[in-house]
Amino acid sequence: MDAAELGFSNPDGTYPSWVALAQAVWNTQVPRWETTTCGGGLRWQIFPFNAGYQYKNTVATGGLFQLSARLARYTGNQTYADWAEKTFDWLYNSPIMAQSLTKVWDGTSMVNNCSDATQTYWTYNVGTVIMGSAYMYNYTNNQTWFDRVNGLMAATDVFFVKTAGPNSPPAIPGPGGDIMCEVACETPTPQTCNYDQPSFKAYLSRWLAVTAQLVPQLSAQIMLRLQASAAAAAVQCSGQNKNMCGRRWYQNVWDGEFGVGEQMSAMSVFQNNLIGSAAAPLTLNKGGTSQSDPSAGAGSGSSSGETNDPAATNLITTGDKAGAGVLTFFSLMLVIGGTSWMVI
Known about the structure:
The chain is mainly α. It has 13 helices and 4 strands. A two-stranded antiparallel ribbon has the order 1-2. Strands 3-4 form a two-stranded antiparallel ribbon. α8 (200-214) packs antiparallel against α9 (219-236) and α8 (200-214) runs parallel beside α11. The chain is globular, with a radius of gyration of 23 Å. The termini are far apart.
């Protein structure tokens, strides 16, 4: 969607368009809308053997919401707008939002029919819902969607804190500030952030910046926080001879943390302070050249009856069977050999 909205050069005709790739993803998500429990929503995991399969969470359902909203605005197709309404309504009426715009919890368990929420705040959860709502407001110019975006801004307040100074060990930062913080895992001592969570602030920075673009009434409020966060992050980018960015932006000395997520978050908040000089996302009616294909990824095939999935048209040959047999034989030998070695 970014490539389509930013006007990237289109792939040649042998490949799907940028927006068609996004539509293909949408066409795989919608069939996973699960109504047998909880009245809707997307599971966190696709396969039953994955932990989290019985969990319906914000970022999965919110991802479908945001994609639906962006496709609606780009293509003008009402089906996408209808799904944006449907997914937002489910989030809003579920325990995740509990019919309030001031909080967006992480998810809800199917084991108890989604009767309560996992009351943990993550930046990317509220971020994806805010930006999806911003797209819908920009597309519809409907006051209801503006009220939703405006109300959801209050749900971000928990992630913006005051500077805590050069704390060692770091103290819990005070609320009511303008510096972004992943409160769920940054503020405990010791920190509990895993490998993924330090990157979450990157997404909130981006999605707030685009919201400022699409809903200019909120631009001043958003940019104040992005500017303060960028300035604080810059101070944290003093590790290892000023080559590494730390995690706790509210602390004004490097906290010793570094990794891909930390660098992503810092770079995102720096870059998104430039959103004011960037063009608004394109649409098919306003400068967009990436062509829509609503059936992309749905296996509808071409007019000749051929499927778009090359793997589905390749017959299993004798050579394929022989190769599979050889691989199976060596796999069994490895298992038997490893087991024998452990026994000996």
